[in-house]
Amino acid sequence: MSRLARVTAISLLVIASPSAAVADEWKQALIISPQVIQQGIVDAHARASFVRRQSAAPPQPAKAASTRHRVLWTAIGAAGGFFGGLFLGAAIDDAVRDCECDDAGLKGAVIGGPIGAAAGGMTGYLLSK
To answer: Distance between the two ends of the chain, CA-based, in angstroms?
Structure first.
């Protein structure tokens, strides 16, 4: 147990003691000299510098995504968004305009595909950070 810890423990006992007589006895028994305080400071500095030397490696900053990584995720997002836009556009067009024609939902698919590709590409780019 270091000197500083002993001094702290004894001080807490003095503060928490139930009677003034016991407190006076502890105060007389506890003599803190400037040398004890100075030694505690030196010990604390030595421990702090030792801890700093052990963790001398600088923390690694968050690695930015490489260009190849961003292009890959943008392409995946654009492809997924394109097909998602196709199906969503066709479903909306078929629900809004109920026709008995051969190309039900084609107009919505043609409009939804590029919109979905743009939205998916932007989403893939933003999420690749």
So the answer is: 49
